[in-house]
Amino acid sequence: MLDRSKLLQQMHALAGQLFIDFSGDYACAREVWEKISQDAAFIYTVRAAQAGTPLLLPTWEPAQSLSCACSIAQPIATAPTHEQSVDTEQLCYRVISVDGSQIYPDRHQGSSCFLINVGMVMLAYGIVGKAAALSCRPTVYSGQEMTDVFVSTEVINGQRQEAELQEGFRLCAAYAHDGAPQLLLFDGSLVFWHLEAQDTRLRDRFLPAYLASLQQLYEARHLVAGYISAPRSRELVNLIKLALIKEGKESEAEALRLVDAHVAHFFLTPGTRSIVFKNHASICEHYAEHLQPHFFYVHVGDEIGRVEIPAWIAADERLVTFVAQVIVDQCAKGYGYPVAIAEAHEQAVVKGADRDFFYQALNRLSIAHKQRMLGSQKSMKKRRASF
Hints:
This protein is α+β, with helices and mostly antiparallel strands. About 40% of the residues lie in helices and about 15% in strands.
C-alpha cells in the first residue's frame, strides 16, 4: 500500500525539478530560429554537418523557409461526382485506422501462448455507403511458430506491428473500389525506431515485412500517415543547437531543453502546418527512396502534432495538404485527438477481465485435452485470499 504522506514529502522536495522555467530557453531558441529561418544558405550548413555530428538533423527543400506556415484551408477533394457524392460542401473523405494490443506469455500461468488483438476502424464522411465500421481481429499464437527468434516482449511487439500494417493494407484495398479520398492513419511513427536499438536478428526478422507493407501501400497508391500526439522529437531543436555550436556557444546548445513542438509554436497557428522535412535516422537507410520517412508539424488547435509520411506522398503538395486536412478535421471531431485512432485503440485494447478470460479458456482447454498447465505458486496465491 502506498504511503501517501511520504509520497507528498518527496514530491514537495522535487518541486524545483518538476516545474522548470523555460523562458530563457524560449528566448534563446526564438532568436536563433528567426536568424536561421532568414538564412537561405543554412540548409547547406546542415547538409555539410550531417556526417560529422551526433545531432539528428533534418533536411528540406532549399527554396522553402523554415518558418513557413502552410495553409491547409483548401477544401478536401470531393468524391466522384456521380452516385458517390452526397454533399460537395462537406469535407468528403474516408479514414482508416488500425491499432494493436497483446497478452504476453506469463510464466506464472505455465504457458508460452500469447495473443495479439488488432482493432480496426473505418469512418466515412460525405460518402454514400457505410459510414462506419468497427471491429477487432484476435490471433492466438502457441509460441512455437517463430523458430528463428526467441519469443520475447520485443518479438511480440514486432509481430503486433507487422499485423497492424498488414490489416491496414487489407482494409484500404477493401474500401478503395469507389475511388473516394482515403487515408490510412496510424498512431505513432513510420520510422521503426524500436528496431534501430534491437538485436540485428530482430531487425532482419521484422524490418523487411514492415517495408513490404509500406511498398504494397505505395504500389496501390493508398495514402498512409502516422500521427504523433505530444511529440518529443528534437530535430528542429537540433537545428538551433547546430547554429549555436557554429557560433561557439556549445554550452548554450547543450543546455537547451526544448522539443520541436515548442519551436513550431513560434510560427504555426491553428489550421497551419510546417514545411515537410526529411528524416535522417540511421534506420531510414534501409527504406527504399520512395518510402523514405518525411515529417511535418501541424497545429490542430489544441496542440502541435507530428505527422510522418513516406517520400512519395511528401513529393506531392496536394497529397500533403490532404493528409493535413484530414488530421485537423479528425482532431476537431475527436476533441483534440484523431477520432479514428482513438476508436481503433478502443477496439484493440485488452483489459484485465479479457486477460483473465484468456487464461481461463486456456486452462479449460488443457483439461479437455487431459494436459496440465503448471502455474507458479505466485499465480495460485493471487487466486486465494489469506490473512
